[in-house]
Amino acid sequence: MNFELTNEQQMLQDSVARFIHDNYDLESRAKSAASKSGFSQDHWQTMADLGWLGLGFDEADGGFGGGHVDIMLLMEQFGKGLVLEPLLASVILGGGALKRGACAELKTEILPGLIDGSRQLALAYAEEQAHFDLHDVITTARSKDDGFIINGHKSMVLHAGTADQIVVSARTSGGQIDENGISLFLIDADAEGVKRENFPTVDGLQACEITLKDVIVGSNRLLGELDHGFAILNSVATDAILALSAEAVGAMEILYKDTVEYTQQREQFDHPLADFQVLQHRMVEMFMEYEQCKSLLYRATMEAAQGSATTQRTAHALKHLVGKAGIFIAENAVQLHGGMGMTEELRIGHYLKRMIVIDAQFGNADYHLQKFAA
Amino acid sequence: MDIELGPEDLAFREDVHEFFAENAYQAGEDYNVWRLEWFKKAAEKGGWDVPKWSKEFGGPGWTPTQHYIWEQETASATLPWDMPFGIGMVAPIIMAHGNEEQQKRFLPDIRARKVNWCQGYSEPGAGSDLAALKTKAVLSEDGTHYTVNGTKIWTTMAQIADWIFCLTRTDDSGIKQEGITFLLFPMKQEGIEVKPIITLGGAHSVNMVYFTDVSVPVENRIGEEGKGWTYAKGLLQHERTGLAGISRSIVALEKLKEQASSVKRGNGSLMDEPSFRAKVAELEIDLMASEYTELRSLASASAGSAPGPESSILKLKGTEIQQRIAKLTVEAGGIYSAAWGRGVGHKFAKAGMGGYLASRAFTIYGGASEVQKDVIAKNVLGLKRSTT
């Protein structure tokens, strides 16, 4: 039993922490968010240069062979800075589908650019009627000549506005909610028939609504086997849950620590707020929830690293706890900061917004509780 | 015990209902013309433009039951936009503690919605501990005017306000609740600077307000010097009961059910999901109880006694319920609640997120929940104030 980081992991954690500390103050973040791409191209290049975009890929695929623990360490630090760059969308979602489903040729074509930061991917899985079900897919891909024709509408596609290619889930057979009959395709973002409507999300990131009208894609762009895309999608979603949860745990740490610090400085009724027992207990609860999330995050990450059969169930547990605890911690951080917590000027509220969005991504607390209990 | 509305109350309800229906805003109408016309017609009904004013000052002089009916009916009708600061907040203080000349000078313009007011209470160092306020007002030697210096914070709509009612410190030698003086003065004058504070949804409604040597004639002081805290405190209690918003929440919960029913899940909707349904049910049960808590509170007011212990929990319960409804709306929006700047997916999702973010302030302003509980512990349960 050992929770110590290896030297390499410690170095990675230190280097990400330093990057966040040096670059991610609230004002710089707001500036990047307001730019056209919605994030900093310079930071993106730095992340590539430092090897972070290749962490999740095998050396054979041109990556750096890092594992789930490395991604967890990276994302936890990202959570502390509310990082805007599209690592989740491009590397974990788009790249995750590619590394699992693409043939050797396609990997050689796409992955080097993805890892060196010159190419950006996105994953279009959600549809309006689907709520959080990955297997609820109406978008169709019809086989024609040596390829497919895709028609449909994909929703809330994270960072698709700046993506070069988009992985799309489409129905190639079966009924609307069948797990079988879903296939994944890699399409060019600017292919004919692809219409992207870009908009900001409440947490300062960006997403697209995508309309696909008679989009032609070659059969060499099919990821995995025909009709069997769901397993890939599901396993990418588990990675996304681990990454988002790590990010949330990083954000929780900032929230509870900022609150402890603020209540020690702010005086009301001739005492620092932190002297009041009712507030002390509240902060203890925030701290406890954070530690519990961290424990479950470690558990899920270790299980994923070992390829354990229980990984998915633990991921359900994790996403439930993180969603619930994250909002609890963030709402109380706002409450204990009083009116100041309600302002854009303080970082607390920005973490609350991110926490709400994290809960809504890849299934909220309720959804995963039901999956876990099933 | 009897909860049946009498024939007079039923007739009143019918009357109110009809008035709202007849005077509802019609698409295409000039909003401002409609708004002022609405208040005029409401005034003709016998003070319906100022429901909470007493008969003496031109209000309707309703019974508590009639107020309750009015509140219930307003929750589902569209009333003209109105700011609470004039009609609901400063006017009652002027009526209770102002002199006749002040009443003649200020009340008609307030009633005609001619003057926008804002409230200068909180300060950077005086939030929950409002009595710690430091904005200084110094009386001139000849006793004709005060000179005001200091900073106010969270001043809602200060950017459009014509006048401010303001708590200032005229004496800091005694306990902090003493030595506070209630002043009224115009906002558009030398020495007043308004700086916006942007809140979580990106909205600008609250401000910092800086006073530098603002001159206020002594005629603009309400009541006695040093008694301002007592005047303001009465109003705060009034404000707090008003913040509970039980009737509005009942309407909001119905809307939430409709919204959740429009979100498809499999062959049914989100409203068919047992866990979501259970949360809505819990809310509804809390609301059913709160509605009667409010009625009990009204009944004791109607009997002329002081508000009972039940009224103290209304702000706490009411704001908590409003927050839970807002949060469930975000949950119902699913991933679409994250979309910002335009509506995507479920139609209600964007407003839902804005509403949720704004709702986080409900347990902070008008007396934070933690402070409210202190007040109940002390005043209702008779407990000693804890050492910290």
Fold and architecture overview:
The complex is a heterodimer of chains A (374) and B (388). Chain A is an alpha+beta fold and 374 residues long. Chain A folds into 3 domains: 7-116, Acyl-CoA dehydrogenase/oxidase, N-terminal domain (Butyryl-Coa Dehydrogenase, subunit A, domain 1); 121-227, Butyryl-CoA Dehydrogenase, subunit A, domain 2 (Beta Barrel), CATH 2.40.110.10; 231-373, Up-down Bundle (Butyryl-CoA Dehydrogenase, subunit A, domain 3). Helix content of chain A is 52%, strand content 16%. In chain A, the strands form 3 sheets. Chain A has a 4-stranded mixed beta sheet, covered by helices on one side. In chain A, strands 2-3-7-6 form a 4-stranded antiparallel beta sheet, with no helix packed on it. A two-stranded antiparallel sheet of chain A has the order 9-10. The two termini of chain A are 31 Å apart. The model of chain A has no long low-confidence stretch (mean pLDDT 96). Chain B is α+β, with helices and mostly antiparallel strands. In chain B, the strands form 3 sheets. Chain B has a 4-stranded mixed beta sheet. Chain B has a 4-stranded antiparallel beta sheet with strand order 2-3-7-6, with no helix packed on it. A two-stranded antiparallel ribbon of chain B has the order 9-10. In chain B, a hairpin with a 5-residue loop joins strand 2 (136-139) and strand 3 (145-153). Chain B is globular and about 80 Å long.
